[in-house]
Amino acid sequence: MTRRDFINATSASYASLLAWGMLHPAPASAFNLPANGQRTDGKGRKVIILGAGLAGMTAAYELGKLGYECTILEARSRSGGRVWTIRGGTKETEIGGGSPQTCSFDNGHYFNGGAARIPHHHQLTLQYCKELNVPLQIFNGANESAYLYNDGGTGDLANRRMRISDYHNDMRGYTAELLSKALDQSTLDQQLTKEDVEKLIDFLKNEGDLNTAHLYKGTNRRGYKIKNDPGAGNLPGTLTDPYGLTDLLRSGFMQPVFYNVGDYAYEQQATLLQPIGGMDAIPKAFEKKLTGKIVFNAPVKELRKTENGVRVIYQKDGKTVEITGEFCVCTLPLPMLKNLESDLSGTVKRAADFIPYMKTGKIGLQFKRRFWEEDDGIYGGITRTNMDINQIWYPSFGLQEAKGVLIGYYNFYSRAEAVGALSITEREKMALALGAKIHPQYPNEFENSFSLAWHRTPYSEGGWANYDDATRKKYYPALLEPDGNIYFAGEHTTYLTAWMAGAFTSARRAVEAIHARVGEYTKK
Amino acid sequence: MTRRDFINATSASYASLLAWGMLHPAPASAFNLPANGQRTDGKGRKVIILGAGLAGMTAAYELGKLGYECTILEARSRSGGRVWTIRGGTKETEIGGGSPQTCSFDNGHYFNGGAARIPHHHQLTLQYCKELNVPLQIFNGANESAYLYNDGGTGDLANRRMRISDYHNDMRGYTAELLSKALDQSTLDQQLTKEDVEKLIDFLKNEGDLNTAHLYKGTNRRGYKIKNDPGAGNLPGTLTDPYGLTDLLRSGFMQPVFYNVGDYAYEQQATLLQPIGGMDAIPKAFEKKLTGKIVFNAPVKELRKTENGVRVIYQKDGKTVEITGEFCVCTLPLPMLKNLESDLSGTVKRAADFIPYMKTGKIGLQFKRRFWEEDDGIYGGITRTNMDINQIWYPSFGLQEAKGVLIGYYNFYSRAEAVGALSITEREKMALALGAKIHPQYPNEFENSFSLAWHRTPYSEGGWANYDDATRKKYYPALLEPDGNIYFAGEHTTYLTAWMAGAFTSARRAVEAIHARVGEYTKK
Lengths: 524, 524
Hints:
The structure is a homodimer. Chain A is an alpha/beta fold. The first copy, chain A, has helices at residues 3-7, 14-19, 54-65, 123-131, 164-184, 194-208, 245-249, 261-264, 281-289, 334-337, 346-354, 371-374, 413-420, 424-438, 442-445, 469-474, 500-523; strands at residues 46-50, 69-73, 85-87, 91-93, 100-102, 110-112, 118-119, 136-139, 147-149, 161-163, 272-275, 294-295, 300-305, 310-316, 319-325, 327-330, 341-342, 360-367, 381-385, 391-394, 404-412, 446-453, 486-488. Chain A has three domains: 40-75 and 281-356 and 467-523, FAD/NAD(P)-binding domain (3-Layer(bba) Sandwich), CATH 3.50.50; 85-145 and 271-278 and 358-456, Alpha-Beta Complex (Polyamine Oxidase, Chain A, domain 2); 163-254, de novo design (two linked rop proteins) (Up-down Bundle). In chain A, a hairpin with a 2-residue loop joins strand 14 (310-316) and strand 15 (319-325). At the A-B interface, helix 2, helix 4, strand 8, helix 5 and helix 6 of A face helix 2, helix 4, strand 8, helix 5 and helix 6 of B.
């Protein structure tokens, strides 16, 4: 199951669509379309690209290889779009009356506000990291030492934190015991031979760490009560007791918010990767390849079709500037496209109007001390809770340094909407109050924060396109064909929504389509 | 269960001993014994330390803080002992007629020949890394994309590689289906209420990705046959089919060699860590703190008790040198102690004679291309097989670089003995031939290798002390008390055998004992 499946169980997943033959497999090598030869190349042909996010920069980079003259118009003063690493000095003022924020993290500390991990099978993303010399490191996605915390439940295990490893080891133990019992008693109507049943019971004994009577009575896999005996010297640690099966079943940890996503989701199974130093290493590497091609602080105001191509009006230094080109690659997120004055067709405009975007937010919290490492032994990974903070992410870099920034919430939908509606100060207060239920060290160690709500972030106004079957069927197709000489790219034009791989693959698709069309022209 | 449990199921584990109160919990802060005050400190008192491995260097470092004058005698030209990172230029000639080897890895490439990972709960190891400014990174221990390979089996799944994630997802699916069926049919004599049974079935549906009829029919968690359709363009990938339960049960993957150690073993559950740049960053950091205190190339020849302390004879530059001190901390591995001329008591000598050491070996293979990443999407982690190579370790650093070094075998016991008995050339040939069954890219991409057998490595002659209940009971106690003024330290004097944490904790124990004794003296 994909991450998106968990977030929106009704939408068709990338995975299933790949399976149904509706997607191209991601290529894993440099993109080398023929620049010469049978086809005339793109030399001198002008392409205007809207947006210096990954899709726009990839399109400019690849079109540049083919000889096209690209200009990227970028509303922000930075590239990367939703690939945004928050560091000391990062500034933002959200729409809807947000207060200006300036990040005051210490030097070297950061969090990835948007894209934050790369699945090991996103070959295209990995290919661009390689091609652009962006060094990667392991992103510790599934840390068994992180916590689950069910707030407001009624069982014995509610309103207290539990190590994920305790939950996993106990549930593996009890389910192995129950199945082993069913097999022992031959009560199960199944097709296995006696020998195979023996093998299965053997498997269960190891899987659950059952005793010789095939019972689960706890396991040293859960670790030890070392800290319960702080006297040191000869004072011993003691083996922990398992939680009771009934307590576990009533714990609430079987709700989707607590799911074992690191095992369940194809995109989140080990191994995940991240660029060393922050995800913005990727857009920065593209920028180096696009010197002089990106016009920053240049919000687009109008997108017009002309007889021979396109005309774009943008603002720059308080003035209105007009630029013309033969083609346009429009990578604007749909919430931005929706409000753009344009000659776009009705089907495209309706797609922009009706394809919903994910509401989502994060907060980075800088602490004086990496207490999650020092006190809890948590080096990276994710704590999950049903509270409004939803997830706490621990950095899997800068280990054992003096200070640290963790992601104090990563939330979605109504939780993100409610939290995003708060003032910057109130968000911080909320993140600290709820996080302190899991980490009581919060109040003593906290230094400063920076929060963001993607649906309130200028020039994005949403996390990612959030299709369901109906919107995918009704509105999506309009984005796949050029509208005159205007081509669309960005994660919203793919079944890899929310992933950087979507931006990359959509850009290649647009480049391929433009280049093929140029080839057509010259054949005539 | 500990790693050692898997290797030697009969030995008492650190964990269980910790539970029984036979161990101190590892402290997590700097070691600050009182250097002044009630006790007289160690100023001017001479301590001779045998061995500049982690135990010896830690003892010298901590005794130094207290004012003792330490001299470390080290037989090798390097520090670290079994903490040994193999790089270009590393030289070794094994005992028993081994040929001289010089490593020819490219600059920046390496593998850790001995200690290679740090459990997140080995607080003392982490404390020393912090105190000595050794930066850490994630060690990717449990990579679901690595392979299992059962050689020589007869089932349909023998003699072919299988992704660990396929095995896990399928077994989770089938066992969830079987237990769900037992619960549906109420055939199981258990104590759960109807409501709890419903919750458990709900859990199983998610855990196994069962369909609405509670059957496991495969899952997109297994990934997709992307590479089966290499035509790109509109050619689709296809969903993979699950393996059959019977085939899985007969696959041989339920043998211990294939165990899911990343989930089972307390020491190997996520998260594991490693120093950036190689494990020898730790001994190198100690060396900086011990300037002038280590005498290299100084093999010890005699260890004598004197009226006031100890006398040690060692060789240096072809000459015999004698040194005296008030105390000795002997960290020599028992296979070395066994052959030392000494006044040690009979009980200590018998311990050295009869405590067995693990036979174990590794080979580093440098390849032109990181095909395991590029072709297989494997970034770190461990492939497991019942062949003589036993484990293949993929580096979780230097990701996407041009070349790479992987560990082509990591084996134990009779496998290590057989492989260690081969010539350097034959080991390489064997590693390449067996590894190529799993990675057919081996022959085309191979460049060079460096292999080691710890039981044939001079000044170690074994991997680690390998106690069983009998040897622990009979011989171990002799190592815990001083023999005259000679104190013993090293992993073999702990229940943390094989781990660096054992070296650290044993050194602190010896320091504490010496310092306490000095305190006793001055009271008289």
